């Protein structure tokens, strides 16, 4: 679909644009749609970075949990051996 065929008013209206709005931030339909697409791209990029960070934190948390479990098991064994003596 070319830019000429694109119905910006319909798209903008679906996204919440109000053609009767007359405030200081009034914008035309095309600008409204284009800004929305730009913001969506930025948000997608940030979301991807946050998902990657979350994955790394989850892996780190899992590794810490495994380390803690091994340390605790070792301490329990040492304590049990001390009690037996």
UniProtKB/TrEMBL annotation:
Gene source species: marine sediment metagenome
Protein name as annotated: Uncharacterized protein
Region described as Disordered: spans on this chain: 1-27
Ranges of biased composition (kind: Basic and acidic residues): 17-27
């Amino acid at each position: 679909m070319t830019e000429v065929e694109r119905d910006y008013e319909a798209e903008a209206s679906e996204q919440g644009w109000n053609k009767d709005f007359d405030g200081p931030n009034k914008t035309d339909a095309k600008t409204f749609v284009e800004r929305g697409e730009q913001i969506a791209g930025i948000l997608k990029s940030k979301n991807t970075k946050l998902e990657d960070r979350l994955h790394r934190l989850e892996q780190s948390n899992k590794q810490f949990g495994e380390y803690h479990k091994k340390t605790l098991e070792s301490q329990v064994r040492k304590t049990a051996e001390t009690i037996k003596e």
